[in-house]
């Protein structure tokens, strides 16, 4: 058996889906008191997508260009190892994207 709410408490729909029939005062009260997801669902970019990040002004891009200039004949995995020694903390996939940006001509 469901416990009854004391008189003067919140309407019975709080914390549940909105009722099928609304009374005049209920919609605004529901909007004011409902809990929302934080952050809103669907906000931001998909995980792992860059969507045009250019790394402009990123010190890792300058470092990647230096490593590419000093060791042009090495394999990309060795470049990533060198970069990770200088600046640990970024993942291999991030360094791969930075190296791809570093190989492209600079745009001013």
Fold and architecture overview:
The protein contains 4 helices and no strands. It is mainly alpha-helical. Helix 3 (76-86) packs across helix 4. The radius of gyration is 27 Å and the shape is rod-shaped. The N and C termini lie far apart (71 Å). The model has no long low-confidence stretch (mean pLDDT 76).
Structural class estimated from helices and strands: mainly alpha
- List the helices and strands in order: HHHH
Unreliable parts: none
**Largest pleated sheet:** none
Summarize this structure briefly.
The protein is an all-alpha fold and 108 residues long. The protein contains four helices and no strands.
Keywords, separated by commas or semicolons:
108 residues; mainly alpha; 40% helix
What is the strand and helix layout of this fold?
Blueprint: H1 26-33, H2 59-70, H3 76-86, H4 92-103
Helix pairs in contact: 2-3, 2-4, 3-4
